[in-house]
Specification:
The chain has 152 residues and is an alpha+beta fold. It contains 4 helices and 5 strands; from the N terminus they run H-E-E-E-H-H-E-H-E. The strands form 2 sheets. A 3-stranded antiparallel sheet has the order 4-3-5. Strands 1-2 form a two-stranded antiparallel ribbon. Strand 1 and strand 2 form a beta hairpin.
Length: 152
C-alpha cells in the first residue's frame, strides 16, 4: 500500500496529473467529517491496486465551492411622535447609527414631515439590536421615540 493519502490516490486513478512541487494536504474539520482539499498532486503513477482490468470508469474529483446565499436585509425605521424633541432624534441617529450631523438632521426632518424615516439597512440581527438600542436609549431619556424594522 502506498504511504500517500487516499485523496491523492483517488485523483490519480482518474488519470489526472499533479502539479509539481506541491503536496496534498488534508484538513480535519471535525471528528466526524474530513474534507480533502487538493492543493496539488504528485507525478507518480496510479498504484496497481486502484486499476481494475476492463474498468474504464475513472473516479472523477471535482472541486466544489459552497453555494452561499446572501442574508435578507432589513431596514430600521424611526417613527414620528408629538413629544420627542427633534434634537433628541438627531442625537439618536448620531449615537446609535453613527451618522454625521447633516445626515442625521436630514433623516430627522424626513421623520418629522413624512411620519417615518429610514435609518439604515442591516441583517436581521443587527437591525433588531438597533431597534432595541433606540428603545432603550429613548426610555432612559424619558422620550416615547419608537423604531421598527421592515424587510428591505
Amino acid at each position: 500500500m502506498s504511504d500517500r493519502c487516499v485523496h491523492c490516490l483517488m485523483v490519480q486513478s482518474a488519470g489526472k496529473r499533479a502539479r509539481s512541487g506541491k503536496e496534498c494536504r488534508i484538513n480535519l474539520i471535525s471528528e466526524n467529517s474530513l474534507i480533502a482539499q487538493l492543493l496539488a498532486m504528485s507525478d507518480e503513477k496510479t498504484p496497481d491496486f486502484m486499476n481494475t482490468p476492463g474498468d474504464e470508469r475513472g473516479l472523477v474529483v471535482e472541486e466544489s465551492k459552497p453555494e452561499l446565499k446572501k442574508p435578507p436585509l432589513y431596514q430600521v425605521v424611526l417613527l414620528n411622535d408629538d413629544y420627542t424633541p427633534m434634537d433628541f432624534v438627531v442625537e439618536v441617529l448620531e449615537q446609535i447609527f453613527g451618522m454625521d450631523r447633516q445626515k442625521a438632521t436630514r433623516i430627522m426632518l424626513e421623520v418629522h414631515t413624512k411620519g417615518k424615516g429610514r435609518c439604515g439597512v442591516f441583517t436581521y440581527e443587527i437591525a433588531e439590536t438597533k431597534v432595541a438600542q433606540v428603545g432603550s436609549y429613548a426610555q432612559q431619556h424619558q422620550h416615547p421615540l419608537m423604531s421598527t424594522l421592515e424587510e428591505a
